[in-house]
Each structure stands twice: as structure tokens, then as C-alpha cells.
Amino acid sequence: MPALLATLAAGFLVAGVVVFAVADGSGAPRDVGRTASTPLEPQVAYRSDLVLSFDDPWAVLWTGAHVAGALLVVTGLLLFAAAGDWELGRRSSART
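Predicted structure:
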């Protein structure tokens, strides 16, 4: 049974990595919601000099698909931990 659980965990882990990679490489529009609107002409009282950039190649703008992929990876890792714990528990109970 732990082998079946480990196989299921591997499936979740691989599926999560694939979903995350596809979401990261998809040509979906990155600007959604409020950030996609056309900026208004700045007025003197509301001018800001704060500049945010995402030039780092590891920066990820999280979409729903990214979250789904990350949740699949976390589920796979938790299932791996459960399978390992189950196997260790079976070994220790066989000794006593």
C-alpha cells in the first residue's frame, strides 16, 4: 500500500510541475484586473516615483494555473511524506 501511495504522490508531483511550467510559458496576458487599465494622467498631488520591475528571471506573476500547480506539488510532497511515514511505521512495528 505505501508503494501505491508513493506512486500517487509521484503523479501529483509531476502533474504539478507540468501545470506550473505550462502556466509559466503560456502566452496568456500577464496584465489582468486593475493593472491592465489605462493609467490616468498624473496630477502633481498624486505623482509617485516608485518603480517596480520584474526583471529577475525567477519572478513569477501568480495566476490561477500557477496556484493549481503549486498545490499539486505540495499535495504530492505530503503524500510522499505519508508513504514514507507509513513504511517507517511498518518497519518499526515489525521489530517489536
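Summary: DSSP finds two helices and no strands in the chain.
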